[in-house]
Design goal:
Helix 4 links the parallel strand 4 and strand 5. The model is unreliable at 256-263 (pLDDT under 50). Helix 3 (64-78) packs parallel to helix 4 (102-134) and helix 4 (102-134) runs parallel beside helix 5 (154-174). By secondary structure, this protein is an alpha/beta fold. 40% of the residues lie in helices and 13% in strands. Strands 3-2-1-4-5-6-7 form a seven-stranded parallel beta sheet, sandwiched between helices. The relative contact order is 0.16. It has helices at 17-28, 40-47, 64-78, 102-134, 154-174, 210-217, 230-237, and strands spanning 8-12, 32-37, 54-58, 83-86, 137-141, 179-184, 248-251. It has one domain (8-251): Rossmann fold, CATH 3.40.50.720. Pfam families: adh_short. This is 3-phenylpropionate-dihydrodiol/cinnamic acid-dihydrodiol dehydrogenase. Keywords: Oxidoreductase. Belongs to the short-chain dehydrogenases/reductases (SDR) family. InterPro entries: NAD(P)-bd_dom_sf, Sc_DH/Rdtase_CS, SDR_fam.
Length: 263
């Protein structure tokens, strides 16, 4: 797109999945990256691909101090921050309301909302001053579950609907200096996991036949890779191609027959 050259971008959860695909694409297009990543091994794997244009910060998106540290790293390394991309999330593996015990419901609510909603708010708050100065942008990873059922269970779907509200409210609150938008991918095979409180921290979405499901039921009848979703992020993060876009979520999922995904 040509709009990412020299853009300074902070990505949370950039060590794998869509986050890693964003990092690789943005580096290819000339951006300079800071990645906030909790997993030290994933952070180390990123260090080899940046050639001085990538800084990794090990930390947790649910801790405000770690978000501040990542913003400070961008300003220290590159002089400013142009874009904050919130990308860390947990999935609930389609756990329905009646599948959850009352104890699990409360604990799962806390964990999913803390990561999927509060994590974005903390990151946006930490980045706000720097983004106002650069007249920059915020891009949040949402989901087709922000619009439709069956993208997850009740807790995940609730967090992604909340994320839609976050985009719309922050676009209002942070205008005119900061544009705020979201990208809503559909399913893909990644290491997206669930909360420990539901016994799902060791499971990954790639453990289920998600690619087979997509090929069978999605409108395009093809498996989707994380890199297939990155174009929307590049557009929204660009320095010129999306200057009129704010308060919008791009639904880029391949919507198909609403069958229940495999458990």
């Amino acid at each position: 797109m040509g709009g990412l050259q020299d853009r300074v971008v902070l990505v949370t959860g950039g060590g794998s999945g869509v986050g890693r695909a964003i990092v690789e694409r943005f580096l290819d297009e000339g951006a300079r990256l800071v990645v906030l990543e909790r997993d030290p091994d994933k952070a180390a794997s990123l260090a080899a691909i940046g050639s001085g244009e990538l800084v990794t910060v090990t930390g947790d998106v649910t801790t405000y101090a770690d978000n501040e540290k990542a913003v400070a790293a961008a300003v220290e390394a590159f002089g400013r921050l142009d874009v904050f991309i919130g990308n860390v999330g947990l999935w609930d593996f389609n756990r329905t309301l009646v599948d959850l015990s009352p104890t699990e419901l409360q604990a799962g609510f806390h964990d999913l909302f803390t990561v999927n909603v509060l994590g974005y708010l903390l990151g946006a708050r930490a980045a706000a001053a720097a983004l106002r100065e650069s007249r920059g942008a915020i891009v949040l990873t949402l989901s087709n579950a922000s619009f439709y059922p069956q993208g997850g269970g009740v807790l995940y779907t609730a967090t992604k609907h909340a994320g839609l509200g976050v985009v719309r409210q922050l676009a209002y609150e942070l205008a005119p200096e900061i544009r705020v938008n979201g990208v809503a991918p559909g399913g893909m095979s990644t290491n997206l996991s669930g909360p420990r409180s539901l016994g799902l921290s060791e499971r990954q979405i790639s453990d289920i036949p998600i690619q087979e499901y997509l090929e069978k039921y999605s409108a395009l009848e093809r498996a989707i890779e994380p890199s297939d979703y990155v174009g929307a992020y590049a557009l929204l993060a660009s320095g010129g191609d999306a200057l009129t876009v704010t308060g919008t979520v791009f639904d880029i999922s391949s919507v198909g027959t609403p069958h229940r995904p495999p458990q």
